[in-house]
Amino acid sequence: MTQAQTANPTAAILIIGNEILSGRTQDANVQFIAQRLAALGIKLEEVRVVPDVPERIIRAVNELRASYKLLFTTGGIGPTHDDITSECIAAAFGVPWELNEETDREMKQVMGERYNAARQRMAMMPRGAAPIRNEASIAPGFSIANVYVMAGVPRIMQAMMKALEPVLPRGTPIQMRAVHGFGVVEGGIAAGLAAIQARYPELDLGSYPFKKDGVWGVALVAKGTDLPAIEAAIREATDLIAAQGAQPIQGEPAA
Amino acid sequence: MTQAQTANPTAAILIIGNEILSGRTQDANVQFIAQRLAALGIKLEEVRVVPDVPERIIRAVNELRASYKLLFTTGGIGPTHDDITSECIAAAFGVPWELNEETDREMKQVMGERYNAARQRMAMMPRGAAPIRNEASIAPGFSIANVYVMAGVPRIMQAMMKALEPVLPRGTPIQMRAVHGFGVVEGGIAAGLAAIQARYPELDLGSYPFKKDGVWGVALVAKGTDLPAIEAAIREATDLIAAQGAQPIQGEPAA
Hints:
By secondary structure, chain A is an alpha/beta fold. The first copy, chain A, has helices spanning about 5, 20, 30-40, 55-65, 85-95, 100-110, 115-120, 155-165, 185-200, 225-245; strands at about 10-15, 45-50, 70-75, 95-100, 125, 130, 140-145, 145-150, 175-180, 205-210, 215-225, 250. Chain A has a six-stranded mixed β-sheet with strand order 2-1-3-8-7-6, sandwiched between helices. A four-stranded antiparallel β-sheet of chain A has the order 10-11-9-12. A two-stranded antiparallel ribbon of chain A has the order 4-5.
């Protein structure tokens, strides 16, 4: 790992998600957040999914906010009985859960008579939290200390990430390059690939089997903050694929 | 939560996955495993994604195998330098990492001259592990105590799950029913939904906004082990949607 990468801020994602654990829903938030964080030079180091159970949420929030520089949560901030993230964050911080006056005023103004008791729950926040206003939803997310609390609905979460990006700490952007080949198998290139990794210890060199149009292949991916090193490693990986008698194709196999 | 659900075996999934944390790959394994476990009456209680770093893998394995009855891992059991799951599991259990003679013999027999040093790594297992033979790959997964170690490539993982199912402990299958309506918003039904949840404390009643063909709606989902109760709760949820002036549609909105 390069010094730049080591110095990059670290982050975790906590998904509050019965619907993920039951298999009802395919998570669509991790990849989006991961890609945005990589672009900002923030190193995503852990993802957890926990059920909508207060003590589980509180414990995970406290473990993850202590272990990483930034914690992003998704899910559980709507108006229904199963939306308990906000009060759990207050409990995790040991602060009162109370009406955020500013948000209350803004939501009332926009929603008028539709602003009922259920909707007012979405204006409740841990004391000291700051709303995350966004383009997709009248009800905001919020941040408190190093914890960023976002919606679970992908398009609302994405709008909240967009609103957050200007205020997040940044590091050296993490870049990736890839080369792939059909008919290549990991067992055939493992030794050569380990040798390349040894020559570029500052990079993460990964090997990923894929199947496309019924044919197996392997994608080799170099990741890090030093683009010239990444490109040099990919040139060597390209030669490794060619040496197997396969045609090296730059980039990832299209999905 | 019903007694049956409480008595159901618990499980966690640990994904060893730099490629998930970097945003390169969309996880495709959690939903599959979650759905299979629900059908077997196994309660998935946590998912974690950690990087390909030995101490992180070892710590997560030890925390999760102690906290849940079953632990399923995916990823990191191939032949390349970044495949370190198997030796990490040995370290987590404090047992030697050694050649599984049976697997070594079988792989040699099938692969013949292609059975090189890199491939032989896939026959290495923690002492005491039992191979998970499967239809998709010559190299097996393995189980040790309550930990089931599977591949990250979805079709190989799926074959390993299929091979495992007959030997996993079972509980009361967890069932789900849903009803949805377009034009319904959570803020309008929150109070009514909370009242239904209060009448069916043994069920998990969830509310999930969706957008389809440009129109927002809400899906109401009842989950538990008692199918008559689930169906009764969904009838009440159907009435709740109708009372909003929307057309209740049984089931989930098609993706």
